[in-house]
């Protein structure tokens, strides 16, 4: 371990890297711990690494590719002195100061890193259906990321599960490769925004299976189809597919902090007075504490807030310590 850092930032999406830019410019020499890619779609750089065109990030009139946007965030953070390390955080201890972080499977002994303050920006991950075949078929015709895997599904019939913006975005993207795309949704109307719905309804390659739940993913070695149940009639049917994308929402990456920080019933870290958590000196920003807006721009904004909150908290703590010393 190389000394106690002023601030450790866990996560390298828009929230974490914006916090790094701001704490870097405040001469706090931030350490950013970015995760490693995982089979469930976790990605250094966060969910934008799994996105194609980002059309709603202000400042890019013609849109920008998600990975390109994160590349600029990263370069900007590095320019201001952020140190970015790739490692999987295995344990954090927020019960004593400085805060301790262990990585890559270690959870005892000397911590890998220690920080006076901590900014949590671990984001959220794609939800799965919870069906038995999911783990075996993930990466074998089953995916949660069209941007990453769409290329492998040329001229195939593809299914997309979900009815929100993610599902429709995936479906639209997949029409670039697929022979056809069937959106499988458990209700009769989409949750996706009107503009996305209009695009999907206009696209001749997209079909819909309404009121339908996937009860089984079929395939021996790779996805060959799904079994569906009509939720109104109870009728079962099968749909032949050459691939399946699950796009049913996200869950916050907060397991590491369970029992140490206050969370809402869905596991999102609760914040107050800006980005403060239930432990003083620990701040949370981005999707890990936001189940409502979940946008890159709001994540970046809250990363900025967390940096300013951490800087002010460190200053106030140092000032209080100086005063206590001068009075003794
Ligand atoms: P979401 O809005 O929560 O939608 C999840 C969809 O999956 C819903 O249609 C839901 O059905 C369905 N679903 C959930 N659990 C299911 C299950 N177990 N089985 C079958 N279906 C299930 O999630 P999201 O689409 O990931 O979007 C999250 C947020 O990010 C939203 O605010 C969205 O606007 C935003 N977003 C924006 C963009 C963009 O602007 N380009 C792209 C992606 C996401 P019900 O409708 O019946 O609940």
Describe the structure.
The chain has about 325 residues and is an alpha/beta fold. It folds into two domains: about 5-125 and about 250-325, FAD/NAD(P)-binding domain; about 135-245, FAD/NAD(P)-binding domain (3-Layer(bba) Sandwich). It contains seven helices and 19 strands. The strands form five sheets. Strands 1, 2, 5, 6, 7, 8 and 19 form a seven-stranded mixed sheet that branches. Strands 10-17-11-12-13 form a five-stranded parallel sheet. A three-stranded antiparallel sheet has the order 14-15-16, with no helix packed on it. A hairpin with a 5-residue loop joins strand 6 (about 90-95) and strand 7 (about 100-105). Helix 1 (about 15-25) packs parallel to helix 2 and helix 1 (about 15-25) crosses helix 7. The mean pLDDT is about 95. NADP nicotinamide-adenine-dinucleotide phosphate binds near residues 129, 162, 164, 191 and 249. NADP nicotinamide-adenine-dinucleotide phosphate binds near residues 191, 193 and 249.
SSE topology:
Blueprint: E1 4-10, H1 14-25, E2 31-34, E3 53-54, E4 64-65, H2 66-79, E5 83-86, E6 89-93, E7 99-103, E8 113-120, E9 124-126, H3 134-137, E10 142-143, H4 146-149, E11 157-161, H5 165-174, E12 180-184, H6 194-202, E13 206-209, E14 212-218, E15 225-230, E16 236-240, E17 243-246, E18 250-252, E19 282-284, H7 296-327
Parallel strand pairs: 1-2, 1-8, 2-5, 8-19, 10-17, 11-12, 11-17, 12-13
Antiparallel strand pairs: 3-4, 6-7, 7-8, 9-18, 14-15, 15-16
The structure holds NADP nicotinamide-adenine-dinucleotide phosphate.
């Amino acid at each position: 371990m190389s000394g106690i850092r002023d601030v450790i930032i866990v996560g390298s999406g828009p929230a974490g890297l914006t916090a790094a830019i701001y704490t870097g410019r405040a001469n706090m020499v931030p350490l950013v711990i970015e995760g490693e890619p995982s089979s469930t779609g976790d990605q250094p750089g966060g969910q934008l690494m799994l996105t194609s065109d980002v059309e709603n990030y202000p400042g890019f009139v013609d849109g920008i590719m998600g990975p390109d946007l994160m590349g600029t965030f990263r370069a900007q953070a590095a320019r201001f002195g952020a140190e970015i390390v790739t490692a999987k955080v295995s344990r954090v201890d927020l019960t004593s100061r400085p805060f301790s972080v262990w990585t890559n499977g270690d959870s005892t002994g000397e911590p890998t890193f220690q920080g006076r303050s901590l900014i949590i920006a671990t984001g959220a991950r794609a939800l799965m259906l919870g069906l038995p075949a999911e783990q075996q078929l993930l990466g074998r015709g089953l995916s949660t990321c069209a941007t990453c895997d769409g290329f492998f599904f040329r001229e195939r019939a593809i299914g997309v599960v979900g009815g929100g913006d993610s599902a429709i975005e995936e479906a639209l993207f997949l029409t670039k490769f697929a022979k056809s795309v069937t959106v499988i949704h458990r209700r009769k109307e989409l949750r996706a925004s009107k503009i996305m719905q209009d695009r999907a309804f206009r696209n001749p390659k997209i079909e819909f299976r309404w009121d339908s739940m996937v009860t089984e993913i079929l395939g021996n070695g790779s996805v060959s189809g799904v079994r569906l149940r009509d939720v109104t009639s109870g009728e079962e049917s099968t749909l032949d597919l050459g691939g399946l994308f699950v796009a049913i929402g996200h869950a916050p990456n907060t397991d590491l902090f369970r029992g140490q920080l206050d969370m809402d019933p869905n596991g999102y870290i609760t914040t107050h007075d800006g980005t403060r958590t239930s432990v003083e000196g620990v701040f949370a920003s981005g999707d890990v504490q936001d189940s409502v807006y979940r946008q890159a721009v709001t994540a970046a904004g809250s990363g900025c807030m967390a940096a300013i909150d951490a800087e002010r908290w460190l200053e106030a703590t140092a000032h209080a310590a100086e005063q206590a010393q001068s009075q003794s």
